[in-house]
Here is the input.
Amino acid sequence: MRHKEPFPRQSREDTVTVLVDKETRLLVQGITGREGEFHSEQMLDYGTRIVGGVTPGKGGQKACSDRVPVFDTVAEALKETDANASIVYVPARFAPDAIVEAADAGVPLIVCITEGIPALDMVRVRAYLDQKGSRLVGPNCPGLLSPEQAKVGIMPGHIATPGSTGVVSRSGTLTYEVVYALTNRGLGQTTCIGIGGDPIIGTDFIDALKLFEKDSETEQVVLIGEIGGTAEEQAAEFINEHMTKPVIAFVAGRTAPPGKRMGHAGAIIQGGTGTAADKIAAFEAVGVPVAEHPEQIADFVDQRHG
Amino acid sequence: MKLHEYQSKRLFSEHGVPIPDGGVATNPGQAREVTERLGSPVVVKSQVLVGGRGKAGGIKLAQDSDEAESYAREILEMNIKGFPVRKVLVDEAADIKTEIYLGVVLDRSARRTVMMASSEGGVEIEEVAERKPEAIKKIIIDPFLGLRGYQTLQLAKEIGLGKEQYRSFGRTARGLYEAFTAYDASLAEINPLVVTEDGQLLAVDGKMVLDDSALFRHPDLAKMRDVDAEAPAEREARQAGLSYVKLDGTIGCMVNGAGLAMATMDIIKYFGGSPANFLDIGGGAQADKVATALRLILADESVKAVLFNIFGGITRCDEVAAGILEAFEEIRPTVPLVARLVGTNEEEGRRMLEESTYDLMTANTLVDAAQRAVSAAE
Here is the structure.
């Protein structure tokens, strides 16, 4: 086996093993909105500790059947609670502000579910967050799920079960499909990370791979990519150089035509780059098996595992 | 959203990019009038949202107004790669000495806006990237500092411009970057940017792609959308809030979620079939959305079977099944249908579909569903 260099430790270390667990104390930005309140109820029912909500102008109220206090600003919420993570359900035109507000208040982990944020806004937001040291997951993502510990996002909790496989994906329902298939085979997960389908995102494949490599519970990783950009090619390079744990990949969009946006803002083949063929070749070149279809992912994990 | 050449150049020009004098014509008479105003020679250019206009005969140099009128007549009757020509741009012909490339793009891996320039103008930048990548010079732009003067000077020197062009190149580059940010573009490109015989810079061709997510900030630009550039079904889907892309296969797909929709197309291909479309119905299970989606799929005459692939997460499978059945009441499909519902309340959802009066095959796994759809379409 080829010697792998451990990746350099970054100054920004995470306070939790793989982003969220029982110690996560969550703030919900946009908690009184339709989406925000619905998913907050779901997260509470799953056992996630939601310590507060934020909606400008609604400070002092209670949300989710009187279970969660609401504050006007993130800074106020942080004075009254011991929140260490925030989730953003705010509409696209206000979401950049919400993310920056959370970073400015010092929230170390920010998960943004919102779809449709202008890309140039995200360039600025991401650059600002890098200065502040906050980690962003998303936007346009289903969030995070550590089975039986915490659900921070919109993934259906009951399809996941605790285990040793880390899952990272640019997609939503495709992730659920894969997680569900793993669970049905008795192959549980450490954490499922939805990094989002936008061109400019916070946490990327490499960031997630670093977390899984470092996590003592994770034994193998499933990476679900799709057409557009070169994040999968970069991930393949990182796997080759730094990962000691096995990685199994899937790339959606083998049949996608060039120049057409396939739903996600980031899923587009442009100027000949971003094709599934290139991404699959990059993984195969470094010995990462690529499944032909979602159900085969569970077969591959099973083989690696057993 | 793509803008036409004449629209892009107008926006560039508002930010200080020098463009040739010209005018848009929708009929040959107008082309003559524009030519008479400009003086000859002129270039008559088809305005379609597709590359390779020149090679297709959609760009012609006219020596006088008679010639401009007849070229305009010819070009306005053309259909270039499936795009009908509705407008021509009549531009003053430039005295070209050299051609360069200048573009601003969103670079996903750098997470920044990047300006690219090349001495190899007049050909597609992708072709240059393939053939002579060292000829493409790039600078990364800080989102808070913007484009700086030293950066444009560096680019000008690297692509071999003469001292006499440094200032005008800086002005042009700044204008292009300003237009890119002002209108929330994902691409703004001048190709070629020509150096004329008397040493002036002139943006002879321009292209701009806007970020659809930012159109709410630019209602005027949103109105510039060329509906001819969209397939009618894609337009209807966009207006209904569905994400639909027509493909040339025979199996219609209705899926919730973009990634799963692509994976569904891929598995159809894997089992020897061909997908007729990409379609993401999004979250929820509203019957009206399912009905619109189904209507779009069935309007495509090459569709021989339809595959529903629904993962019920927060949305329950029984709700989705109810939505599908309600949609069938409105649109009575006549092609074979295969449904695979999985996730929350899947048994109930499947039972509802199986007990309905519609001829619907259900499948438990995606593999099974795809194989059934492929054989049904044969």
